[in-house]
Amino acid sequence: MIILAVESSCDETSVAILKDGKEVLSHVVLSQIDIHKLYGGVVPEIASRNHVAHVTKVFNEAITNANIDIKDIDLVAVTKGPGLIGSLLVGINAATAFAFAHNKPIIGVNHLIGHIYASSIENEMKFPLLALLVSGGHTELIYMKDHFDFKIIGSTLDDAVGEAYDKVARTLGLSYPGGPVVDRLAKEGKDTYDLPRVTLEKDSYDFSFSGLKSAVINKVHNLNQKGEEVNINDMCASFQNSVIDVLISKTKLAAENFKVKQIILAGGVAANKSLRERIFNEVEGYEIVIPSFKYCTDNAAMIAAAAFEQIKHEEPTHNYLVKGFSTKD
Ligand code: KG4
Ligand code: ZN
User: What are the Gcp-like domain coordinates in residue numbering (predicted)?
Assistant: First the structure.
């Protein structure tokens, strides 16, 4: 089963071709980060215009790299949401046009499910499992009894983890996206600033990161007012430790209570080196699966991997209306 998948929910234009959800025949990701960096974050209108400008080129490159004939493609998969409406529509229109022109069936894939199934490209999913999904827009603990059986057991009440990283980075005068920069600088610093660990009620699987973000902003403001310098590396280390302490304690609690076999780390923040290391070292008794860096941030390979499983639960269509298109979860 050869699947061509398209992902364009935010600021990456990506097309991938996978065989049986695992063998990556081609994987092209065109990032717009350098453009959005100038504005300190993703500008939706600019993102959609850039998807329009590059989507055909990315399609062609993916098909050429895969070294296959278009007639060998069995299915087209495309991210149907959540994401930025203009960005999503470019990918959906490109995918449906391609499917229509070549008479292929098409299926819409939820972006978050894509992030979870990124782990199935290089590993086997073992149920029951717990997925810690940490991205720019989402922070969720998801329990899966089986394939395509999802139960969200906890989520953020305010900021997503990636969003908190990006906002803290901006406060510290660091570039967008904040996650990779904070991750790098934290390695050079020490956890010297006293920041809160917000765990909410006992036994809650929900998260809250806006208090931590405000604590960093207030500390920086107070130090500035006193004319004292902020040690950026130490602030990054303190913030990152606080985030990861909370992520790990909630993951441990959920894994224990739900008696899972495997824990999957998913989403852009799963690229965080310290989180990857600490979850391996501190969460014992479960198989821990973390996708390679290239499958953590937004990419179309994860959409193809999810589609490969999704078609066992949902019929792809030939009517070229992507079922369930939505900018929301
Ligand atoms: O999954 P993703 O590519 O896009 C969304 O679906 O949101 O995640 C992007 C988020 C950004 O907030 C970015 O700062 C964060 O992932 N991120 C990281 C790292 N690399 C990317 N956060 C922490 N550490 C990293 N190394
Ligand atoms: Zn994402």
Answer: 23-304
Residue 295 DSSP symbol? G
303 in ligand 1 pocket by Cβ < 6 Å? no
ipTM of this predicted structure: 0.98
- Between the alpha carbon of residue 240 and those of residues 59, 104, 275, 277, 296, the distances in Å are 37, 45, 9, 13, 18
CATH of domain 124-294: 3.30.420.40
Which helix (DSSP H) or strand (DSSP E) does residue 30 occupy? strand 23-31
Residue 326, Cβ neighbours under 10 Å: how many? 14
Provide the token pair at 323.
Answer: 């079922």
Average pLDDT over residues 171-182: 96
For 235-280, how does the pLDDT look when each residue is reduced to its tens digit (9 = 90+)? 999 999 999 999 999 999 999 999 999 999 999 999 999 999 999 9
Going by CATH, does the domain composed of 2-116+299-310 fall within 3.30.420.40? yes
Q: What is the pLDDT of residue 326?
A: 72
The mean pLDDT of 312-329, rounded to a whole number, is 76
Q: Structural domain boundaries of the chain?
A: 2-116+299-310, 124-294
For residue 81 and ligand 1, the question of a CB distance below 6 A is answered with no
Q: Is there an atom of ligand 1 within 6 Å of 164 CB? A: no
Pocket test of ligand 1: the residue of 117, 165, 213 to mutate, having most ligand atoms within 8 Å of its CB, is 165
pLDDT value at position 317? 82
